[in-house]
Design brief:
Blueprint lengths: L1 E2 L6 E2 L53 H10 L18 H17 L3 H5 L3 H10 L1 H12 L3 H32 L14
Antiparallel strand pairs: 1-2
Helix pairs in contact: 2-5, 5-6
Length: 192
């Protein structure tokens, strides 16, 4: 039997953890009992009073000494690290611009993906290429220091293109499913 050092529970010999408190039992060396009259003392609960006979001297070390050190750690001051206040590192403008371009290309370039799924490759590629228009507008306004206006205009154009692309995919899907001719792109382009 393995006796837990924390709570005193008797666990099976092959147990790795205490069944009561969860203490690791793998590195515990169990004392060899040579005398059957030897008494085993367990750590009482906090609300119990331990009574020992006056004529016996017992060299008692708390079984939960490891727990005591853990409690001291919990009482240690938290968040003692104080960062030194330094000026922020200079950010590279070109990295920000490149990331903005890549993000815009990915977002707007996927406008025609529904048409590509339907097998309308010319139509899908046309919508994907039209998705570059808001990116180019945003870039031109960024270079001309009109970031807010350029962002709003390109966002508006991009959203209009996105909504039209969704509407066109819906209309084309219905036409394909019903066996009708594919509607014209923007009402004038015959791209199938």
């Amino acid at each position: 039997m393995k006796i837990c050092q924390r709570c005193g529970h008797e666990n099976e010999e092959n147990a790795k953890f205490c069944g009561i408190c969860g203490q690791n039992l793998q590195n515990i060396e169990q004392p060899q009992k040579t005398n059957q009259d030897e008494k085993t003392y367990q750590q009482p609960a906090d609300n119990q009073i331990r009574q020992e006979p006056d004529n016996q001297q017992i060299d008692f070390q708390p079984a939960n000494s490891q727990q005591t050190s853990n409690q001291q750690q919990y009482n240690a001051p938290q968040n003692t690290y104080q960062p030194s206040y330094q000026t922020h590192a200079h950010k590279n403008m070109w990295i920000a611009v490149i990331l903005d371009i890549v993000g815009g290309l990915i977002f707007y370039f996927l406008c025609g993906i529904g048409q590509l799924y339907l097998g309308l490759y010319k139509r899908g590629i046309t919508l994907c290429l039209l998705g570059l228009v808001p990116v180019i507008i945003n870039l031109l306004c960024l270079i001309a220091d009109h970031e807010l206006i350029g962002s709003l205009v390109s966002l508006l154009i991009g959203l209009i293109l996105l909504v039209y692309s969704v509407y066109d995919a819906y209309k084309c899907t219905n036409a394909i499913n019903e066996g009708q001719p594919i509607p014209l792109l923007f009402g004038s382009l015959d791209l199938q």
